[in-house]
Fold this protein.
Amino acid sequence: MSTTLSPESLQQIQRLDLRARMVVRGFLQGLHSSPFHGFSVQFSEHRRYNRGDDPKLIDWLAYAKTDKYFVKRYEAETNLTGYLVIDLSKSMGFTENQTMTKFEYCTCLAASLTYLMTMQQDPVGLLTCAEKVQALLPAKSRRGHLGDVMAQLTRLEPSGSTRLPECLTQVAAMLKQHSLVMLFTDLLPDADGGGQSEEVISALARLRHGGHDVILFHVLDEAEVNFPYDGPTQFEDSESGQTVSVDASGFRQEYLDQLEAFRDRYREGCHQLRIDYVPLDTSMPFDKALTEYLMQRQSRF
Amino acid sequence: MTFFNVSLILGVLSVSIPIALHFLSRRQPKKIIFPSIQLLKQKAEINRSRVRVKKWWLLAFRIAALAALALTLAQPAIPATLSLTWLTISLLMLFGFCLLALATLAQSRGMERSFAVILAIVAMSLISAASIWGVATYANGPSGSLNQLAPQSIAIVLDNGPSVAWKTSDDHRLERMKTVANWVISQLPQSSQVAVIDRSTQLVTFALDASSATKKVEQLDVIESAQPLRSRLASAARLLETGRHERSSIFLISDLTLSAWETERREGNFELSNEKGTIDLTIFDLGQFTGKNRVLSIPKLADATPPKDTPTPLTVTVQVESLGPDEAVSVTAELEMYQNDLALPALRNEQVLWPATTAVDRASTQLINGQPQQLLLTIPALPVGTHHGVVRLIGNDAMPLDDARFFSVRVLPPSKVLLVSSYQSEAQVVASAIRASSNDGATSEYDIESIDFPDLAVVRLEEYDVLILLDPPSKELDQKAIDSFLSQGGRALVAFGSNGQLGDINDQWFEGSVRSWRVPSPGAFLQSAEFQHPILSELSENIPWGNYRVHQYWQVTASENDRVLLEFAGTEHPAMIERQFDLAPDAESETDAGRLLLITTPFPAVANRNRPWNDLFGSNAWPAWLLCRQSIEYLTNRHGTNNMALVGESHSLDLNFDKSLTPQVKTLLFSPNNQSPSPILAGENNGSLIIRDVTHSGTYWLRGSQPGNGFSANLGASKTKLDRIQSDDLSVIFGANQYDLISRKEDYGQSDQDQNRRLRLHSPAMLLVAILFILEQILSNRFYQQRNPRSIGLKKKNLAKI
């Protein structure tokens, strides 16, 4: 499973929809028997018709038998509305080994989730975070929606800086329905100091208070996680152009400690907010992200 | 501190390479786009300062490693006396570097900056103080302490005097000496200068290389006429001055015999040094002598110039020196005579053919350790001429040099003596004294004719070898004829007495004032004025002249050319004068010059005179009797000391050729050392041959003059004495602790003297270099990569946290 779902193997497939299908098919095939069988679109119960209900939902057979209006409860209420929120900051376009950028990893992951959710009849919407939130697609579950999402994801490009806390606040304000917000970001703060972990966690808390479930996919490049540099090195920030010269060999451990502390801050914050925090790097297979989604889905029903 | 290969210290200059690289060729950092720079910025400053400190440390290690390597290759050594000082300096330096490392650690850990600065200041102070102290100690410390592996200028002095001829089944001195010398040469570091110096008179020079030095050692032989050790050591010291190495040493191989060291011991302190400084002296002792040695003394001839056809007794003293258990030894001595062959010795096919010997007598005796015994041997009757012989001990012993002794006899025809005296009794006394012989029936050496003074005028003096005038009456003497006789090479003995007239004696014989001197009772007596004169040297030194009083004598004044042989005790009045005349034109040798012996009191005074002049020929008058014989022997050239010589001394040999026949003659001198003979041209001006240094014992033959001409040389008895000096004596000679006395090869270079003087720092310096290189490698992290961050382990760790 890991072989077919690894970013390196998927990199050979250009079309995003095919990639998504490969990921999900491979993922489901690996599961053997799906524990999510009960999510199919089926009748669950009847309830008395109330004013305002759609007359199309009245079960006329029940009326014939009982002479009362009953309304069938359908899958629409059992479905999970998901929003893919993708960070469009320039740092997301970084790759060290020139195989897959963080952004590509995120789009691939997002596409796979969209495909999976579409299969489950769950509506999926797409939002992007840059200077401000841009709602690209509303959450829909129809089959053609998948193609729209794929098309949108393909067109996206990381550029400029992102004000993630503000964007998240906007998202919280935008979403009326309780939804599953899947956030794809590297969580790196701005060059001017914006987007520190406290602000982001605070914005996530607002989202959480809005009744939304949040999965935070913290995607970093493999090089950012392992810091494979040696000797005196001058590092330049991709967004601000700032430079820092250090001795990479002697600095590695300190950097990794810093990174771990950075992740721990989010892990701790998310844990308190009951947000699922998924640290990823571009060398990790996609099934981990999918598993996370399905776990979330299961805990809800 | 001293360095062996001083030139390698220049290697310290290589420290400029890392310094230049550090400042000139600094590597530019590679540029990398990196999004997570915010994570880097927080600790970057600390990292930067840490990197800077690390770079300085790295530079320091590289400099120190290169400098230490250069110093190590230069092989430093410190004087042992300063070892504590250098240890303290090293500890201070080490402590300083430890503090500096602590300061670095404090800085890298982000501790209080002031703390790190204080630590660094203290560390730098310690290091500076230690450095200054080290430089001062180096500048003021003694130099010259080099380790044993340094090339050196060494003189191997070999005491190859007669004692190294000692050879037993397990102790062959000469071979052992060669072995030790070769071993020392083989142990020397490369490019050392070696001089092999023995006790010969050869000039001392450095050998070209080790092999030529070894070759010289192999050619070593026993030298009988060995030069004094002091002069050879002084020559070695002078030679070492010209050596190109700083370290000079002398390795003396000796068996410490008294004969070799006696002079040195007597002359006292001998400082071995030259302009370069003190010379290390190592004395290798060849050890005690163990074994038996039979010693034969130099033969004593009853008469060195016996008459022809008369056997001559010869006595030798023989004794055994047992340097082991005592036991009686049977010794046989054999007397051999060389056959006089006109054609021999000769050089044929580069080999010297010697005359054959014939054993003529033999004597045996039993000897006990240390008790000498005399052996009497007899030389058979010989014809006129010079004859050579040898006395040998039958059998071998450890010291061969004293087992054969050589002698020469000169058989002369009878000397004609004209004895002129007014008193028959006195003439008889003198004649009997001259004619007396220990061998009854022997042919007399002298043909004596006795006349009275009136007959003197008609005698042809030229027919006589010696003229004896006893108490000549002045008036009756034909002074002119006598002067002529003397100037022609004649010899005369004149004893003045009562017949002489004051004025006549003065006119005829002496230039200064002459007067008759009457000595009050008990009278004067004779004493020797020249002990070395042939007449007197044969007499015992303790002759009781005091028993033979002189009551009256002629007080004369000796002229400048006169030799006073005897004088009257307590005065400067001559009693016996020798006067030598100029060499006659046809004289064959210097011994043919006219000689006159003058005695200023009647000799003998046995005739009836008015007053008694002296008691010299009184009762038991053996001294006067001997004096008479010696005087006549001397005048007739029969005193016989001419043909025996001692090794190491000069010897004069008469060439004895007839100058009337040929003005000069070519002669060949054959030495007993079997080398080619030396050609010698004998002419008018060199009637005798002077050999400055008799080098070997044996018979020297001079061919070309008279048949059998030559002489015998013997090694002095003291030269083969095997008594040894004590180590205390060496301290007296060289000074305590100024030399190493060793008896085993393994002890060479391991002595306390060397150990105390220098400490090698090569090993600790190598360790320091290794430590510095390891530290440099660890710090630079050039070869040992940290664990690959892409390793699976790290991924697992990340996954585990998820």
In short: Chain B has 18 helices and 38 strands. Residues 415-635 of chain B form a domain with the Rossmann fold fold (CATH 3.40.50.880).
